[in-house]
Amino acid sequence: MPNPKRRHSKQRTAKRRTHYKAFPSSVASCPNCNSPKLTHAACPECGYYNGRRVLNVA
Amino acid sequence: MRHLKKGRKLKRTWSHRKSLLSNLATSLIIQDEKRIKTTLAKAKELRPFIEGLITKAKNAVIRERNGEFANGHVDVHQRREVAKVIRSKEAVQELFDTIALTVLERNGGYTRIIKLGQRRGDGAEEAIIQLVDFAPKQDGATSTRRKTKSAKAPKAAPVVAAVTETVADAPVVEEIKDVVTEIAEAPETVADAVEETVADVAVAAEEASDAAPESAAEPEAPAAEGTTNEGEEPKA
Ligand SMILES: [Zn+2]
Predict the structure, then answer these.
(1) A20, A45, B43, B88 - which has most CB atoms within 10 Å?
(2) How far is the CA of B184 from the centre of ligand 1 (A)?
(3) How far is the CA of B36 from the centre of ligand 1 (A)?
(4) Cα(B65)–Cα(B220) distance, rounded to whole angstroms?
């Protein structure tokens, strides 16, 4: 079986992982009720999307 | 290579996937509001599936209307083609008799997918898929949002104007006239303000009725009821 010729240092691993990031989800405020909501999705608070009521929120 | 490997597997075998799409399509067709809630991936797979069926039904109806079938017969072949994948007679009938007629003017794009965000539990992204022509007609969709904002003011204004005129005619209520005019300039608070003024009218009417009983006796009764139906109240 093939094996690595050289030891893979911690530094090498860490350097590769500098590009691993967590990105914040894109949150916008609802134009209808101003509560935070995901972009391109219906508002969970008031059930509006694109100026149109799409959900019956209690 | 990925060549020609279009679409999602949805973690199902071919037969299972076929059944799933058939069931989703049947649900969407039969459901009264013509909208179902499912995962975003399933909704996106369902869209081309059901739009093809709707187009088949629509074209069949168009051919029937063009008189391509003798003696008013229907396009049986197309119904059978659709019935291959939708195994519910009820749904096939709904598709050809109701949906096809409603979408007759629309060139594709019969469905709308609205994302709902992730659900609790498994974090799957959910969506609503609906038939556009069956969605309730609503003012206030993006293009008309500005119109609805300005539309509120004219609605309230005429009522206030009527109140201002008719109230001014009543002899007792000269003092309140100013108040009502103020309200006319701020239509949004009309409902509350009108109730207040109606109460004021009642008080004023009572006071006046002591002084001039004959002239002010009548406005007292309707005002005391606290009705918001101002149009009739000041006839006195
Ligand atoms: Zn909202």
Answers:
(1) B43
(2) 31
(3) 21
(4) 66
Q: What is the pLDDT of residue B213?
A: 47
Of B115, B116, B145, the CB nearest to A51: B145
CB contact under 8 A, A51 and B144: yes
The span from the CA of A18 to the CA of B35, in Å, is 45
Cross-chain CB nearest to A40 (options B115, B138, B144): B115
Tell me if the pTM is above 0.80.
no
- Give tens-digit pLDDT for A1-53: 999 999 999 999 999 999 999 999 999 999 999 999 999 999 999 999 988 88
CA distance B113 to chain A (A): 10
Phi, psi of B92 (to 5 degrees): -60, -40
Sheet of B125-131: strand order equals B35-39, B125-131, B111-118
State chain B's mean pLDDT as an integer: 76
The whole-angstrom separation of Cα B189 and Cα B159 is 12
Say if strands B111-118 and B35-39 run parallel, antiparallel, or are unpaired.
Answer: unpaired
pLDDT of residue B225: 44
Six-digit token pair at A29? 């405020």
The answer to whether B35 and B135 are in contact (CB under 8 A) is yes
CA distance B217 to B208: 8
Domain map of chain A by residue range?
28-58
The residue count of chain A comes to 58
* Predicted confidence (pLDDT) per residue in B180-198, tens digit: 555 555 555 555 555 555 5
